[in-house]
C-alpha cells in the first residue's frame, strides 16, 4: 500500500479471468468514497423521481438488500456507506456472512411483512427473483400466514390483482417500488421483463471495480450520462482499438469527452481522480456514444450505452467472465472429435453463449447433446458459471453444428482474397456479425480425400506469400562507378 497515491479506505474485488485468477482487487480511497456516496444517493434520486429537483425517497425507506457481499464492489459500497439511512431488508452487517441465496430468501420474507420501497441489484438477479416469485406462488398455501396479518394482506391483494389479470402473481402485485436500480452489461436485455415484473423500468448504472460509478441514466431512462468528475476519460476509436489488439506494440490514438462522435464505438480508458491508482487504464469495455447531449433534459454531456467487451472474455449476466482457454478446455473435456469452433455472446430476450462447432463426423451427435456436455464441463471448470443455473436459472449455452468443411472453406476464401495470415481463421471469441455471416453462409468447399490440416494450409500460405513478395520486388539496377 505504500506505493499507492493515497492510503486505501478499503479494498474491493471483482471476478477475475475464469481458470486463471479468481479475483481482481482494487483500492478505494476516502476521497474517492466521499464522491461515490454522493453518487449513490444521486442514482437513488434519479431512479425514484419524475422531474428535476424531486426527491421521492425518504429516511427509513425499506431497501431490499440483494447485492453481492463485500469485498465485491456493490456490497462494499453499501457496507461502508451510511446504511442506517434506510431500513435494509435484511440488515446489511448482520447478514454479510450468510450465503447469497439465504440472504435473498430472508429479505423476501421480511419484504412480505414490511414492504419494499427501493431495490438495487444486478439486472439478471432482479429478473431471477421475479421469476422465482411468480413460480413459487402458483400453489400458495395461506394457512401458515394467518398469524401474520401484514403478510397475509399483501399476498391476498397480490392474488386478487393477478386473478383479475388472469396471469401468475408478479412482484408488482405485492409491492409498489419507489425506485429500482439495475447494473450489469446485460441490463438492456432485461429492461422490458423487469418492467413487466416489477412495475417500473430499472435505472441503468454503468460502473466497475476500477472506475466505480462512471455513468448513469437519469429520470428519462434513455442514454447513460457520463459522470465526469470521478475519473478522467479517454476514448480509443474502434478502428484504433482493433489495430492495438492485432499489434500489441501499436500505440492507439485517443480522443477526449468533447471530441467523441455520436453513433461511434470507443474503447474506454480511465485515469482515477481523488487518489485512485489507475493511470490510462483500459477497462476492456467498448461503449457506444448515442448522442452528444440529452436535449430533452438539457444535459450537455455525451450519452452512452455499453456495447461489448474488447478482450477475449465473455461476460454473462454479470456473474462470470469466460475466457477462450476455459471454453476450449470445456470442449476438449467432452471428448468430442471436432475440427474447430467459435463462440460469441448474443443478446435476445436473455444473454446467449452461442457456440458454433464443426464436428469431424457430423450426424451422429445432436446440437442438444453437445450443448449438454459442454455446459456440464463449463460448470465444473468455472464456479460462477455454475451459479448462473443454480441461482438465477439461466442456462445460456446454445450450440449450432456447422456443416463439414465450414472452417476450411472460410480459410480458402480468405486465402484467395489475399488476407493476412492473422486473419485466415475466424477468432474463437466474439467474432463480428460480418465474419459470422461469411463463415456460416459462405460457399462450402467440396470435401477432399485427404483433409488438409490447418497448419499445413498456413505453411502453404506462407510459402506462396514469400514467392509473391519476391516477384513483386523491383530488380536491382546496377550502375558503373566512375
Tell me what you see in this structure:
By secondary structure, the protein is of the alpha/beta class. The protein folds into three domains: 8-221, Rossmann fold; 231-311, no CATH class; 314-467, GMP Synthetase, Chain A, domain 3, CATH 3.30.300.30. The chain has 14 helices and 18 strands. It has helices at 30-48, 73-80, 100-114, 123-136, 149-165, 171-174, 187-198, 238-246, 324-333, 367-381, 383-392, 406-416, 433-441, 454-472; strands spanning 8-17, 21-29, 62-65, 87-89, 118-122, 179-183, 203-208, 212-216, 224-226, 231-237, 265-272, 281-291, 303-309, 313-316, 320-323, 338-347, 351-359, 397-401. A hairpin with an 8-residue loop joins β11 (265-272) and β12 (281-291). Mean pLDDT is 85; it is low at 448-454 and 476-482.
SSE topology sketch:
Blueprint: E1 8-17, E2 21-29, H1 30-48, E3 62-65, H2 73-80, E4 87-89, H3 100-114, E5 118-122, H4 123-136, H5 149-165, H6 171-174, E6 179-183, H7 187-198, E7 203-208, E8 212-216, E9 224-226, E10 231-237, H8 238-246, E11 265-272, E12 281-291, E13 303-309, E14 313-316, E15 320-323, H9 324-333, E16 338-347, E17 351-359, H10 367-381, H11 383-392, E18 397-401, H12 406-416, H13 433-441, H14 454-472
Parallel strand pairs: 3-4, 3-5, 5-6, 6-7, 17-18
Antiparallel strand pairs: 1-2, 7-8, 8-9, 9-13, 10-11, 11-12, 12-13, 14-15, 16-17
